[in-house]
Design a protein that fits this description.
Distance between the termini: 20 Å
Largest sheet: none
Number of helices: 11
Helix content: over 70%
Strand content: under 5%
Structural class: mainly alpha
Keywords: Membrane, Transmembrane, Transmembrane helix
Number of strands: 0
Order of helices and strands: HHHHHHHHHHH
Shape: globular
Length: 261
């Protein structure tokens, strides 16, 4: 029987050949184009902050900008749904079940490989953003500095970044769960409706704390030097995503174990 690590390696190799997974990498173009736009003094690029940007703040702000586009949530949802649901629909999952007589292990391996693949994309985003920042953006000394980080904002920036990552993890766990209940298109539509509902709910007092997008918007308004407040927001968001993901995993595995493949 294949080990969990071996299954994850197989899943990662599968993702490398998925066109929709490669589409996720188009997010790297955003910081690249933004950096070039800054250096060329493009009228499209608008800075609203009172303080100059520095390396890590530029990275987190670009990642936040990608988050605001939302399209990448839908793409990642499609990738996640096809990872398991697509194999169930085309019956290729049967080749797996002959070698692995442990469906929960298969389920967790698919979720884990998707999360790991997204972390690799995040690392690539960090590298591309900083390279383009120091190649182009720093030419505009009136807007940015050559400084990499500020110690007083480091924790706040890191937790802001992690808060956004948590929403992508939510996207993966929710989408994989939906894929064992519904066909691909239906699952992606349901995810889209739920994500929009979360954005709507985040505007209402009391119930806004149940929305995963609420904490990102709060971070966007926060003075990142307020470390204690940043930690509280992050822990609340992490706990919420952990609860949701646990529920999704239990429901998904239970259905997957009982489903006739």
């Amino acid at each position: 029987m294949l080990s969990f690590r071996n299954i994850c390696n197989i899943e990662l190799r599968k993702l490398m050949y998925r066109k929709d997974m490669w589409i996720m990498l188009t997010m790297l173009a955003i910081p690249a184009l933004y950096s070039i736009g800054i250096s060329l003094n493009s009228s499209v690029i608008v800075f609203t902050g009172e303080e100059k940007e520095y390396g890590m703040s530029f990275f987190v702000n670009m990642f936040s900008f990608v988050n605001a586009v939302y399209i990448y949530y839908f793409i990642l949802s499609l990738v996640s749904v096809r990872s398991l649901g697509g194999e169930i629909e085309n019956k290729s999952i049967l080749l797996y079940t002959q070698r692995i007589n442990n469906r929960p292990k298969m389920y967790f391996a698919k979720v884990s490989s998707l999360i790991l693949a997204f972390f690799v994309i995040c690392l690539a985003f960090l590298i591309v953003t900083l390279v383009m920042y120091y190649l182009f953006a720093v030419q505009r000394e009136d807007l940015v500095t050559r400084q990499l980080l500020k110690s007083e904002e480091l924790t706040g920036l890191f937790l802001f970044f992690l808060c956004i990552v948590l929403v992508y993890i939510f996207t993966i766990t929710f989408s994989v769960m939906l894929s064992v209940y519904f066909k691909t298109n239906t699952a992606v539509i349901i995810f889209s409706i739920v994500l929009i509902a979360f954005m709507f709910v985040s505007e209402f007092p009391t119930i806004q704390y149940l929305s995963i997008t609420y904490y990102i918007s709060r971070f966007g308004e926060l003075d990142l030097t307020q470390t204690s407040e940043a930690v509280k927001l992050f822990l609340a968001n992490a706990a919420l995503v952990a609860v949701y993901s646990t529920i999704f995993s239990v429901l998904g595995i239970r259905k997957f174990e009982r489903r006739d493949l």
